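Protocol step 4 of 6.
Sequence for Dihydrofolate reductase (Amycolatopsis oliviviridis) entered exactly as in the expression construct, tag removed. Do not edit the line below.
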Amino acid sequence: MAEPQTADGKVLWHFTMSLDGFVAGPGHSMDWMTGTTFRPDLIAEYTSTTGAVLGGRDGWDAFPDPSGIYGGAWTGPLFVLTHHPEDATPTDGVTFLNCDPAEAVRIGLEAADGKNLEVFSPNIGRQLLALGLIDEIDLHIAPVLLGDGIRLYDNPGGPPIRLRGAGAGDPFASVDVRFRPA
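Step 5 output, structure tokens:
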């Protein structure tokens, strides 16, 4: 089990993910998470350590309601990175940014005021990873195989990205999970 999340002013790429690597179903559907349980106090852990959220336009267009973040338990600045902010519907607490991802991180971290900037976008996360701007990847693996949808990480033809485990133990050890069909 991972150590509890801390508010260290880091850029945190954070998702619940299916066992086969999808963070959303087709069309950004999230109904696949119904019935998934999480460890006690998980939501409270992230709501207390998150200072701001950075998302992408596709995800925003699928779920244009900032009160849905962590089931409404979190409030704070939400930034949506888009090439077309002019056609976005103005929403309280949401800032639409048209800049490069590094500038979006700078803006988000400043708004996070010492807490974490959570990245809720596979595409933006991939770009930030390539720029060396992701401090940590935090995943919760749901016991489901989706087979289709939006992957956490897609980079066909690109080199593997080596990661180090966070927490105690060998940082290069594999992570063992075991499931049975329900």
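Step 6, annotate. The mean pLDDT is 94.
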